[in-house]
Design a protein that fits this description.
The protein is built from nine helices and four strands, in the order αβαβαβαβααααα. It has a four-stranded parallel beta sheet, sandwiched between helices.
C-alpha cells in the first residue's frame, strides 16, 4: 500500500475504508566512517513499509532530507532549514488532507526532526481552523521515533549497553547491515577509538572538532545483520501499535 505505487483509483478505494497514512521521515547525513549517509531515511522507510504491509495501511513517500545542520561539516550531509522542513511537511499533509486523509503517523529516523515536526503540526492545525476546513478537528498526528520505542530501547540496552551511543548507533547500523548487506565492506570500516566520545557541541564545525569521525558515544563494530533483523521486527511492531492507537482516536 505504498502511495507512489498506487493508481488514483486505488487511493480513492482505500479512502473509502481508512483515512490513515504512515509517513516515513528521516535525514541525509553522515553516520560516522562505518554508517551510510542515508541511514535515518532508509531505516524509517523500511519500518514504515513493514508496518504498512502488515496493517494494509497506506504508506506515503519518504521525506528523506531533515533538519541536520549540525552535520554539515561532513561531506555528503544535507539539511533543510527548519522553516523549509516545516513548509515541506505542511504542503505534504495539506495535499493529502484535500483528498480525505485525516490520521498521519510519522515514522521518524532522526532526532533533529522532532521540534520541526511539532512546529509543523501546530501550523497545520492553525491553518485548518483559520480557513474553516470542515474536518479541521478530525486531523490527528503522531510520531514514532523508532529508536526510542520501549522494546527497541530494551533490546539495545541488553545487546549493546552504553556502547549504543546517540549517533551512528549500534541499532541503526545493525538495521542498515540487515537491509543493505551488499554494503557490508563499507560498514566494517575501522573505528578509532572503538567507543566514540560524547561531548556537547554547538554548530557544525564544533561538532566535528569534538566528534572527529562523526559518531557520538557509539561503538558500531558491535552491530550485526542478525541484530538488525530482530530490531526491524521489533520496530515494525511498535510502529503498528502507534498507528492503531492513532487511528482508533475519536
Amino acid at each position: 500500500m505504498r502511495l507512489h505505487l498506487c493508481t488514483w483509483p486505488d487511493v480513492e478505494r482505500y479512502l473509502g475504508t481508512s483515512t490513515g497514512i504512515i509517513v516515513p521521515i528521516g535525514s541525509t547525513e553522515q553516520h560516522g566512517p562505518s554508517g551510510l549517509i542515508g541511514t535515518d531515511a532508509l531505516c524509517a522507510e523500511a519500518i514504515a513499509i513493514g508496518a504498512g504491509d502488515r496493517l494494509e495501511a497506506m504508506v506515503g513517500p519518504s521525506i528523506n532530507i531533515g533538519m541536520a545542520v549540525h552535520h554539515m561539516a561532513f561531506a555528503g550531509s544535507m539539511t533543510y532549514r527548519p522553516s523549509t522542513l516545516v513548509a515541506v511537511i505542511r504542503d505534504y499533509v495539506m495535499a493529502l488532507t484535500a483528498h480525505g486523509f485525516r490520521r498521519f503517523l510519522f515514522v521518524n529516523g532522526h532526532g533533529g526532526n522532532i521540534p520541526t515536526l511539532q512546529s509543523a503540526w501546530y501550523e497545520i492545525h492553525e491553518e485548518l481552523n483559520r480557513t474553516g476546513h470542515p474536518d479541521a478537528g478530525d486531523v490527528r498526528f503522531a510520531v514514532q521515533n523508532w529508536w526510542s520505542g520501549a522494546q527497541v530501547k530494551a533490546y539495545a540496552d541488553e545487546a549493546f549497553g552504553a556502547a549504543e551511543g546517540s549517533h551512528a548507533t549500534c541499532t541503526e547500523i545493525s538495521l542498515m547491515q540487515f537491509l543493505y548487506p551488499d554494503h557490508a565492506p563499507v560498514l566494517a570500516a575501522p573505528l578509532d577509538p572503538a567507543v566514540a566520545p560524547h561531548h556537547a557541541f554547538h554548530g557544525p564545525a564544533h561538532y566535528r572538532a569534538v566528534h572527529p569521525d562523526g559518531r557520538i558515544g557509539s561503538d558500531p563494530s558491535l552491530a550485526s545483520p542478525d541484530h538488525g533483523g530482530r530490531l526491524l521486527d521489533i520496530a515494525v511492531m511498535e510502529a503498528m501499535a502507534a498507528y492503531e492507537k492513532l487511528t482508533a482516536t475519536p
